[in-house]
Automatic annotation (TrEMBL):
Keywords: Membrane, Transmembrane, Transmembrane helix
All copies of domain Major facilitator superfamily (MFS) profile, residue ranges: 224-408
One Pfam family of this chain: MFS_1
Parts forming coiled coils: none
Protein name as it appears in the record: MFS transporter
Alphabetized InterPro entries for the sequence: MFS (IPR011701), MFS_dom (IPR020846), MFS_trans_sf (IPR036259)
Residue ranges of the TM segments: 26-48, 60-80, 87-106, 112-136, 148-171, 183-204, 225-244, 264-283, 290-309, 315-339, 351-373, 379-397
GO molecular function: transmembrane transporter activity
Taxonomic placement: Bacteria, Pseudomonadati, Pseudomonadota, Alphaproteobacteria, Hyphomicrobiales
Keyword Membrane among UniProt keywords: yes
SUPFAM superfamilies registered for this protein in UniProt: MFS general substrate transporter
């Protein structure tokens, strides 16, 4: 149905009138903005290895990127609560433009500190981009929310192509400053995303509902919410943990940078490609089963990585890791949507993202040190205990959640 038809439909709720237009714009912005994260993950550890005062700090720029994601989530929720999500989008995407410009300057001047500052701004941008999925759900009818959420995430498929190709074709354009042109290109792509987001029209109910709803302490005690957060944390933590280390591990194994770029490209495609179907799977089988499948796929990715250190082993690990993340994270996000009322959504969603990204920080900092000190196999083995924890949380919470729903 076209946007005009939706506007003209008798009795159409104002929040849903621009549903298709908004979801399409948010999906395009997701595709463009995803290049930011892909470029940082593909090059951050390599540039860190070149600029850092010690090799143990090689992955620090990626860890700072995650810190930026965590630090931004609660302020972004507050801005959305007061001024609406669109204001948050403009601020976050502006940070994405600055990130590219500052990172390029850092490479030109061989400044490790300046590069870390750039990746922090890139993390702020990435956190705002991840709120696109909840924004799409805001403007969709309840029965279409899982599909709207996954449709926006599907835009990341194109990010899996844009980001690595930008790295491959621009990394040597400004000799001898490797990757300087890459980050200029990333800033330009962020500017294009800004123009796309300017046309998004979202409901302002977030601002109207300010101050209403249950306390966060009450919402956060729901078994369903706890399971959603734990599974979201583990899915994103392990994806970041392994993806951060993989390009540098491939370098340590004397594999070419082009192989790492292509591995990251297929990883990101695997992260977002299933989103074309994830929403339908959630609707048909339930979010809990989709999340459980994602956790099992993540375990399989680590297991395959333990069999060898050839290019094929790294690629298979990264691809399975991407699919596992998609099922785990999108499913957990759909579970969060079940835990709040309309007037509570901004606070609950930002709390969820703050916990997810805050916990990711530890994984990012731990990843580089473990890889440098103990090797790639140790990084893979460390991923299993959190997976067992997430499976246990999901198994324990689901029956209690069903009983709670029946009582309600």
């Amino acid at each position: 149905m076209s946007e005009v038809a939706v506007q003209g439909r008798v009795g159409a709720p104002p929040a849903f009138r621009f549903e298709r237009s908004n979801v399409a714009r948010l999906a395009v912005a997701q595709a463009l903005a995803g290049a930011n994260s892909t470029i940082v993950y593909a090059t951050g550890a390599v540039i860190g290895d070149m600029l850092a005062p010690t090799k143990a700090l090689a992955t620090l720029p990626i860890s700072i990127f995650v810190v930026g994601m965590a630090a931004c989530t609660l302020p972004a929720g507050a801005v959305a609560q007061r001024y609406g999500r669109r204001a948050t989008f403009m601020i976050g995407t502006g940070c994405g433009v600055l990130s590219g410009l500052i990172a390029s300057l850092a490479v030109l001047h061989a400044s490790f500190g300046l590069f870390c500052a750039a990746t922090f701004l890139g993390g702020v941008y990435a956190a705002v981009v991840l709120s696109f999925r909840f924004a799409a759900a805001d403007c969709a009818a309840p029965e279409r929310r899982p599909r709207a959420l996954s449709a926006v995430m599907a835009g990341g498929v194109f990010a899996g192509v844009i980001g690595p190709q930008l790295v491959t074709y621009t990394m040597g354009l400004w000799p001898p400053h490797l990757f300087a042109a890459t980050y200029l290109a990333q800033g330009a792509v962020a500017a294009i995303s800004l123009s796309v987001l300017a046309g998004v029209r979202l409901p302002m109910s977030i601002a109207a509902d300010r101050g209403r709803g249950r306390p966060l302490s009450v919402i956060a005690r729901q078994p369903r919410f706890i399971a959603a957060v734990v599974c979201g944390v583990v899915s994103y933590l392990l994806m970041n943990f392994l993806m951060t280390a993989a390009p540098l591990a491939m370098k340590f194994c004397n594999l070419p940078q082009e192989a790492a770029n292509l591995g990251l490209q297929w990883h990101v495609i695997a992260m977002y490609g299933p989103s074309f179907w994830t929403g339908r799977l959630i609707t048909r089988f339930g979010a809990s089963r989709v999340v459980a499948t994602g956790l099992l796929l993540t375990a399989a990715s680590s297991a395959i990585g333990l069999f060898g250190i050839q290019v094929g082993h790294f690629w298979a690990t990264l691809i399975l890791l991407g699919v596992g993340w998609n099922f785990g994270f999108v499913g957990a996000s759909a579970m969060v949507l079940e835990c709040h009322r309309a007037e509570e959504k901004a606070r609950v969603q930002s709390l969820n993202d703050f916990i997810v990204f805050g916990t990711m920080t530890f994984g990012s900092f731990l990843s580089g040190g473990l890889l440098s000190a103990y090797g790639w196999n140790t990084v893979l083995w460390v991923s299993f205990p959190p997976l067992f924890l997430a499976v246990a949380a999901l198994a324990l919470a689901s029956p209690r959640a069903r009983r709670g729903d029946a009582a309600s």
